[in-house]
TrEMBL record:
Site feature Important for substrate specificity, where: 12, 73, 157
Catalytic activity: dTTP + H2O = dTMP + diphosphate + H(+); UTP + H2O = UMP + diphosphate + H(+)
Enzyme class: hydrolase
Taxonomic superkingdom: Bacteria
Annotated GO biological process: nucleotide metabolic process
Cofactor(s) recorded in Swiss-Prot or TrEMBL: a divalent metal cation
Cellular localization per UniProt: Cytoplasm
EC number: 3.6.1.9
Function: Nucleoside triphosphate pyrophosphatase that hydrolyzes dTTP and UTP. May have a dual role in cell division arrest and in preventing the incorporation of modified nucleotides into cellular nucleic acids.
Annotated keywords: Cytoplasm, Hydrolase, Nucleotide metabolism
Principal cellular location given in the protein's record: cytoplasm
Protein name from the UniProt record: dTTP/UTP pyrophosphatase
GO molecular function term, any single one: nucleoside triphosphate diphosphatase activity
Organism whose genome encodes this protein: Pullulanibacillus pueri
Amino acid sequence: MKPLILASSSPRRISLLESLGFPVKIAKFETDETFAYSLSVEEVVMELAQRKALNALHHVKGVEEGIIIGGDTVVVLDGEIMGKPRNEEEAFSMINALQGRTHDVYSGLVCIDYESQKQLVRWKRTKVVMKHIDNDTIWRYIKSGEPMDKAGAYAIQGIGATFIEGIEGDYFNVVGLSLSLLSDMLKAFGVEIL
Ligand SMILES: Cc1cn([C@H]2C[C@H](O)[C@@H](COP(=O)(O)OP(=O)(O)OP(=O)(O)O)O2)c(=O)[nH]c1=O
C-alpha cells in the first residue's frame, strides 16, 4: 500500500489518521494561511488545505512517495470566518460570539498522489449548537490553554465538550479530519481502509 503523508502538524489530525491503523509520515512546512475575502468558505478551506498539501509535495519530491493529505478547518458564524485566536482577548470574543448560538464548522481535505500527481479536493460542513456560557467560565476556559490553537477557540474533543449542546453532521470534521470523507477520497486512489 502507498504510504500516507500528512501535510499537518495538528496532533488531532495525526492521531485521527493513525487511528485507521496505517503508518503515517508527517511532512509539515510553513504555509501562508491568509486568504482573499472574495472567496466563499468552501473555497477558503479547500484552497488552504491544497496549499498545505502542495507545499508538502514540493518538499518531499524525490525523498518520499505516497499520498499526501492536507486539511484545513474554520468556524463560521453569520458568514464570518473564525480561524485560530491570535491572543486571549480574541479567544474571548470568539467564544462569547459562539455561545448560545448555532455555528458551522467547515473542513477542507486534499489528497495528492505523488506518482500520478492526481489531486482530489473536497469539503464538509458540520453544524454545532453551543450552550450559553457566562463570562467567568469563558475566562477560566481560556486560562486552561485549550482554545489557543483551535479554530473558533474551542475544542469539542476536550473541556470544550462541556459547552456543546449537540451537533448535526460528522464529529471528526469538527476535530479537523473527517475519516469518512478521507476514506472515500482514498478509495479513488485505490486505497481501501478495510
Ligand atoms: C472547532 C475545533 C477545531 N479544532 C482544531 C482542528 C485544527 O487542528 C485547528 C484549526 O487549524 P488548522 O489551520 O485547520 O490546522 P492546524 O494549524 O492545527 O494544523 P496544520 O495547519 O498543521 O494542519 O482547530 C479542534 O481540534 N477542535 C474543535 O472543536
